[in-house]
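QA checklist item 7 of 12: single-chain prediction sanity check.
[x] sequence parsed
[x] length recorded as 327
[x] structure emitted
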Amino acid sequence: MAIDIYSGEHSGVSQRAIEAFERAVWNVLAHRPDAAVAIEDALGAEPDFVAAHALRALCCVSLARSETIEAAHRHAATAGAALRPGAATPGEHALVCAAEHAAAGRLLRAADRLDAHLTEQPRDLLALKLSHGLRFMSGDAAGMLRTTRQAVARWSATAPGYGYVLGCHSFALGENGELAEAERVGLSAVEHEPFDAWGAHAVGHVYETSGRAEAGIAWLERTRDMWSGCNNFAFHMAWHLALCHMAQGRADVALDLYDRHVRPRTTDDFRDIANAVSLLWRMRQEGVAVGDRWRELAELAQRRAGDCSLVFALLHHLLTAVAVGDR
């Protein structure tokens, strides 16, 4: 058995494969753009790398499109077939089971399976991050906080990735209205781990939710060098920055941020679309002229009209249809 630096336990894999997988996990934790490349590197070194196949499946689920859900089913099946009878680790079994549940749309059951594993291996950071994400996609704020409270209580501040644990906990606290504690924990998260974009995001949420728009702008600008290197999560951070400027009556700044940082290119990722639609909708409600910016979103909405993989995504497509008058 091999153990990676984030306390994941793996059967029958080489050190080269482990190192590639560690890069994949770090990219997931830090919301960086090279997770898929690192997963492929891990599988290139070990084609039967259970955790890599399962992680690929769960990443596909997070994209929440009909074609990525189909891919998630395939990758979950491959992960299950790679389990070594009598040798597979509890963590591998948990990841495979979670991938199977998630691909079938049972996101909370997937999170429950990962949480059950965390009771036995509380420092498996990938399991924690995946559970956190699945509960977030499901709107289970109470479950997020329950899981992160247990994790923080059983974690060591010197363990690799501790800052990422705090970042998840900060976000969960904020989603449950514990804003002062969320701010304190989130600031500590970024202090521990300078690449913790999720922790920085959690602090930004606190400032926005508590009506401290200028503090939010200052914080997001202060951490911009970190989050601008993220994957499309950078678009979401720019969205928060735009919202803070909107709150201060600076729609012109928000619109410039939309063009340059929130929606700099056309993508079909529901998270990017949600950023764009919700910002344009706020502007619409305030009478801000946005030109033809709805057009490309309307084309995507029409294309995705029958895709019910995630209600959150579908609702944003419906908002787009309303905005352009397509009933």
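[x] summary fact logged: The beta strands are 2-3, 9-10.
[ ] second reviewer sign-off
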